[in-house]
Design goal:
Layout (H helix, E strand, L loop, with lengths): L10 H16 L22 H23 L5 H13 L5 E3 L5 E3 L1 H5 L4 H5 L1
Helix pairs in contact: 1-3, 2-3
Length: 121
C-alpha cells in the first residue's frame, strides 16, 4: 500500500502504522487506493493520495538527513515516519464523490481537525 512504511525498523510500531493505514483503507468509498484524490480543489487525477502520502514520508526522511548533516543530531526516523504516515493517512477518507461527480468532504472531515482521526487510532 505505502512502501515507505517498511522503512520503520521497530516491528511493533511498523505493525501499528500498517494496521492503521489498512483500517483507514476499509472506511472510504473508493474502490482503488489509486483513485483517492489529493484534495477536493484539484481535478488533476495524477495527484492522488497514495502519491502525496509517499511524498510526505520521503520528505520527512530527507529533512531528518539534512538535520543530522547540518546540526549533528539524530532524529528518530521511526517516529518521524509513523507520524508522517499517520498524518497523511486521513486523506483516505476525507472526501467522497457526490452523485453529481464533485468531491464533497466526509462527515469525519467536517467534524475533526485534519489527521486527528488517523492519529487517535
Amino acid at each position: 500500500m505505502i512502501p515507505e512504511a517498511e522503512q520503520i525498523r521497530d516491528p511493533g510500531l511498523a505493525g501499528r502504522v500498517v494496521a492503521t493505514l489498512a483500517a483507514r483503507w476499509e472506511e472510504p468509498e473508493w474502490e482503488r487506493i489509486e483513485d483517492i484524490p489529493f484534495n477536493a480543489k484539484n481535478s488533476d487525477t495524477s495527484l492522488v493520495t497514495q502519491t502525496a502520502t509517499r511524498y510526505v514520508a520521503r520528505a520527512s526522511i530527507a529533512q531528518a538527513e539534512i538535520h543530522r548533516e547540518l546540526y549533528g543530531t539524530e532524529v528518530d526516523t521511526d517516529i518521524l515516519l509513523a507520524a508522517a504516515l499517520a498524518d497523511d493517512g486521513n486523506k483516505f477518507f476525507d472526501f467522497y464523490a457526490s452523485k453529481e461527480g464533485s468531491l464533497k468532504p466526509t462527515r469525519f472531515r467536517t467534524l475533526l481537525p485534519v489527521s486527528a482521526y488517523s492519529v487517535h487510532k
